[in-house]
Amino acid sequence: MAINPTTSTLHDAIFPVVEVPAVGVPSDDNVFEGKEIDSTGHKFIVREDTGQILSCMTDEYKLITNRQVFNYANPMIRKSGGEIKEVAVFSDGARTTVKWHFPNEKVSVRKGDMMTPEIVIRNSYDGTIGLNILAGAFRFVCTNGMIIGVIAQNYKNKHSVYNVSLDDIEPVIDETIKKTKIIFKDEFPILIDNKIKERHIVKFIELFPLQANQTVTQRLIADRPKTFWDLFNVGTNVLTHSMSRNSESTHTLENSLYGTMKKWALSEVGHA
After folding, report:
1. Are 204 and 261 in contact (CB under 8 A)?
2. Do 132 and 150 form a contact (C-beta atoms < 8 A)?
3. What is the model's pTM?
4. Who contacts 232 (Cβ-Cβ below 8 Å, separation ≥6)?
5. Residue 83 in contact with residue 75, Cβ under 8 Å?
6. What does the buried/exposed string (b/e) look like for 87-112 if buried means 16 or more CB atoms within 10 Å of the residue's CB?
7. How far apart are CA 131 and CA 123, in angstroms?
8. For the segment 209-262, what is each residue's pLDDT rounded down to a tens digit?
9. Which of 38, 128, 178, 190 is the most buried (most CB within 10 A)?
10. For the chain, what are the domain ranges?
């Protein structure tokens, strides 16, 4: 069953990209005599298929294309049983998120509540994020997707000529899958075993954009969450089924929700 597919496809994400030196002619002709400057220390990142400029970066920026990342990561993920689940492309290709799930890697977090790990890889051409590999999860009970976060070696590889290693991807993916299943058993009980208070409901609603308030409130009334796990799954339900998967703000909130819930739950444990 397809879960909330977006209009983006893998083809939309692996378009050709080139670096073009940023050159210019100074306005003070008396000094430079109108000569072109060919070493400004910057370069344009340009889509070859459309000619669109995606960004202007310094020369220290190392271009890692989505095609390179996919060609490295996809065979490794498929070898581990992963399948592409979602592709999201933002700002005309400047930022991309690709999600794989592992339907055969099932873990029970409590009776009747099965989950599978996911791998989420993000890349950008505008310097807003480096090459990110995050852990995700899929919950069968309500077909909710969720992002746990970067858990393998804190893998956030910035695009720099001094810090790039695509060779790191394979061990990081392997470690992420293994640690995700451990987190299911070790960390999720913190959310499952601790009850929320009214103030958490108020803070929870404030996490979402105003236009989603009615949907969030209706979900809260319907589900009547009692624990942080319940509250977390209200959020993942809204994010998965009711908010636009083509909106970058949806993915931004999805990336931070687990960390927020875990922080709130641990705070309650500390005050118990």
Report:
1. no
2. yes
3. 0.74
4. 146, 191, 257, 258, 261
5. no
6. bbbbeebbbbbbbbbbeebebebeee
7. 5
8. 999 999 999 999 999 999 999 999 999 999 988 998 888 899 889 889 999 999
9. 190
10. 12-58, 66-178, 190-271
